[in-house]
Amino acid sequence: MNIKILFSSLIVFLCIAKTSAQEVLTIEDAMKIALENNFEIKIAKNNSKISETNVTVGNAGMLPVATASVTDNNSVQNSSQVRQDGTSTSLNNAKNNSLNYGVSLGWTVFDGMKMFARLDQLKELQKLGDAELKRTVLMKIGQVNSAYYDLVQQQQQLSALDTTIVISKQRLTLAQNRFTIGKASKLEVLNAQVDLNSDQAAIIRQKESYKNAKILLNQHLARDPQIDFTVTNEVTVDNKLVLIDLMDLAKKQNPALESQIINKRIAELQLKQVKADRYPVVNLTSGYNIAESQSSLGFTTESSAKGFNYGFNATLNIFDGFNQHRNEKVAKLQIENTQIAIDQQNMILNTQLSTAFQTYLTNLELIELEEDNETIAKQNLDITLDKFRIGTITTIDFRTAQLNYVNAKVRYSNAQYEAKLSEIALKELAGNINF
């Protein structure tokens, strides 16, 4: 059997044996788990629900307010009275008590349209909460994607090191056989053993990185860090992204920009509420009250009253030390600031997209280059391995070819990972990560 086929079959068998008892976590499954479990997403969802709950006509001040009240006053006093005819009377420990209870209703029927502006502002605050939720989800899904494909990269590098271990063991076996029959020196065997030990040390370090990458991904998924699983072994990079399309999407979907636009609308509605203070405020009042009182001394020892009352009141700010003018000026400056923030966010967004896109293009080129390098390094290793088996090449040349192949595989894996990170960053900026 061709030794190359033997090596490939052995590697596949080892991988299957390792993964057969483990959960295979896809990127779709990882994103689904994160959406359900991630703590920051849960908090953002609750905050969004709070903003939604606050959007009511009552919270805007459009509905009447009814209150029930009861007041009971009692006293014990030493009292004396002198009447107009000169007679006097006194009483120690005179008891007095009064009891008032009833229901009152107040309703602001006009406040310069402030209540309507307040309702619209509550609706905009709900949109702001939704935008914050979207920002949190995009950020966390981006982190999950990055952690997932980092784990894929670590897994690929572990596979590359597994390959070099198999080759190094085969090299050691060949060196020992040649030494036994007198065709090689002890030095060749020792060199092969040292290189095998170095490869085993490297794979131990790589296993540590692989395990830590799993723990980090479990953290993003808000689950037990010791849950074991494997991931798919491929990194598929979307190589058809277009900068102009991403910029157009970002203007419509980027949550940071969307938040700034909403903040401007909130500031405009705040100005409406401030301007409403120039108009009168009209309140309707009504109620039903019962009053009872008792007194041990005086002309009236008992009294009671009950009945319905109603009316209205109106207030108008005539002069408040120019505070109205100041408040309006401040509100207008706040609107100006929000527009500046929108322009700034647009510039930041375009800059981030442009730089990320350039990195993305560079990484796509590196993928093609490193893929070719891996193919060439594999061919070189195959030829070198055949020559080493028949003893026509030195161990140094063989080791160089072996390391070149491993390094080429690692660089190709890194190039794919970096390109995927660039893709994720671009889609996150454009608000277009699919989940």
Automatic annotation (TrEMBL):
Pfam families: OEP. It is found in: Cell outer membrane. Keywords: Cell outer membrane, Membrane, Signal, Transmembrane, Transmembrane beta strand, Transport. InterPro entries: OMP_efflux, TolC-like. It comes from the Bacteria. Gene3D superfamilies: Outer membrane efflux proteins (OEP). Its main location: membrane. Residues 1-21 form the signal peptide. Residues 72-91 are annotated as: Disordered. Belongs to the outer membrane factor (OMF) (TC 1.B.17) family. This is TolC family protein. It comes from Flavobacterium psychroterrae.
